[in-house]
Amino acid sequence: MKFHQLFKAAFHEPKKLAAFRMLPLGKVVRYIFVFVLLTALLSFIKFALTADTVISGTDMPVEELKGIGPLLYPGAFVLQFLIATVYFYVKASIAALAGLGFLKVRKKRGEYRHLWRTSAISLTVPTLILLLDDLLPSGIPYASALSAAAALVYIWLALGYYPNAAPKKRMAHNPPSRS
């Protein structure tokens, strides 16, 4: 699947989210990197537009600021990309752990590796909520809580399409033989 197909399906197709558990890990990792790159670019553009006001508010001499000027923007972008990538991977891992609990509650069958792939793609909308919160001047009230709730809802809906757990076999109770 192409990036735009994964992106579109992440919004409103829980059945495909569940099917994404079977994608190769490389495809999911590529999706994450492209998605994080796009969000980092948007955040970096906001930083670049507001950096002048931040820099002018410092007490550093102008000579020192001119010395670090050429390194400021590339360094900021690389740092922002790395932090966003680590943050996204940690969020996907935590969401997959929550999904393990959901599997037990819903009596579905799956493994952590499947849940991680599903949760990594289902974090698209929650990440966009946080990005909008960052980009909008007034922000979004309770954006972190809203983002976490959206992630859990998307995972819950996707788990509805996971296979059912096999029923537990009951052991027949055989009384001890008398000899």
TrEMBL record:
Look up the domain of life of the source.
Bacteria
List the keywords (alphabetical).
Membrane, Transmembrane, Transmembrane helix
| InterPro entries per the UniProt record, alphabetical | DUF1189 (IPR009574)
According to the record, the segments passing through the membrane are: 31-51, 71-103, 115-133, 139-162
- Name of protein: DUF1189 domain-containing protein
Species of provenance: Edaphobacillus lindanitolerans
Mind giving the lineage of the organism this protein is from?
Bacteria, Bacillati, Bacillota, Bacilli, Bacillales
